[in-house]
Amino acid sequence: MDDGAASSQTRAELSPALRKAGEFRVYRRRWFVLCVLCLLNCSNSVQWLTFAPVADQTAEDLQVSLDEVNWLSVVYMVVAIPLSFITTWMLDTLGLRLTMILGSWLNMAGSILRVVGVLTCVPEWAMFPMVMAGQSLCALAQPLVIFSPTKLAALWFPEHQRATANMIASMSNPLGLLFANVFSPMIISNTNSLLTLLIIYAIPAAVVCFLATVGIREGVPPTPPSASAETSSSEPFLQGIKLLMKNKAYLTLLVSFGSGIAIFTCFSTLLEQMLCVKGYSSDFAGLCGALFIVFGVIGAGLLGLFVDKTKKFTEATKINMCLTSLACTAFAVVSQMREQKAVVGAVCALFGLFGFAVYPVAMELSVECSYPVGEATSAGLIFISGQIQSIIYIVLLQALTKKLADSPISLCAAGGDANLSWKVPVLVMAGLCCVGSCCFVIFFRTEYRRLRAEADAAADASAQTESERTLRRDTDAANA
């Protein structure tokens, strides 16, 4: 019997008692499940962005163009789009445990295949295809991993910890991007070996695969932590899709926030190429990526705690999306300046502070405005929207670049082929970010359906308890 069926049977037996008592339990092992998901999410994002901070060196080692190196990142989006629909069904039907274990095995297999692809015994013509195949396996794991935070938070954590748990699990993904931005240039600079880099990144993938397979014994706790967890995934998958497509608030979030995800994907993938032509080294680009993510994690932590206490999901999302647009516009300007490391670094930090902070809150907001549709379905469709728009944006931005006849200050390792003008693309990126934010601020309106359902359940339980107490007093008085 799968996790979903088992949880439904168990909770069907326990729910009347829980509703009567109005009490729910939490279990300490929820933190272990959260930890494993964080490690898996982090490892998978490291695999995703392994090559972007060292794109020039990767192109030289694999004897391919920069556009082909970019496809090592873009393949994540291409593969994830069709698989994402299956993943949402798996999470809401088969359960969290099976989905996480499958994701960990795919992630490990992909990381190992990437190592094999750069061994000296492999013919030169086969190196890039094998690395791409390994990257594709890791890409298959991504939706299995990245859709899980909202589901985990809903099934394992009480109402006052959900946003924080979602924030911790979601921010482990950019933490992996941080590691890739920092360690990829560092390892390549010190070893000049792509093989060493890939071996180092394969080790955590193997460790987390072991922890997921051996350590996670159940997809849900024995009893639910909240009223909404009792009815999690109550809507069938296809019916949930239909409900979402009729939900105007959700569709606004789907398009607007999906555009925001695409902007951040473009930034992470193309940052080194945007900066090297202006005389900034790959190490500095890695530092900017690190500042982008570190401040993003800090912002997400602060905002997650704030939203857990105040439940102001909409207000927090709107304000942060506006601030993100301002930061993106500032980056479009300062990235074209020479010898302005402090300014460029500060703008990247602000971009991350406001932009990453909104991600877990928006994921929780997607569940709130679409309840009782399954958490994986509502969050998954937004991810799919982001992936589709990411492909479009990356292809568009690359098409808008212009080759420079001469760029004496360029530090792009691939030489003349990498000396491209990014002035127009970064301005277009800022414009897209502003349009998405304005649409969300103007058109998004919703009620918090999950919180309302939980409040109604608590009120019903309280009324039932009070009614039973009154009946008991009347009975005792009559017997006396």
What do you see in this structure?
It is a single chain. The protein is mainly α. Helix content is 79%, strand content 1%. It is built from 18 helices and 2 strands. Strands 1-2 form a two-stranded antiparallel sheet. It is globular and about 100 Å long. The chain starts with a helix and ends with a helix. Mean pLDDT is 83; it is low at 1-22.
Low-confidence runs of at least 5 consecutive residues: 1-22
Q: Class by helix and strand content?
A: mainly alpha
Strand content: under 5%
Number of strands: 2
The main sheet comes to: 2 strands, antiparallel
The helix-strand sequence is HHHHHHHHHHHHHHHHEEHH
Strand order of the largest sheet: 1-2
Query: How many individual helices?
Result: 18
- Give the N-to-C terminal Cα separation: 52 Å
Q: How large, in whole angstroms, is the Cα Rg?
A: 24 Å
Give the fraction of residues assigned to helices: over 70%
Q: Mean pLDDT, nearest integer?
A: 83
The geometry reads as: globular
What's the gist of this structure?
Helix content is 79%, strand content 1%. The protein has 18 helices and 2 strands.
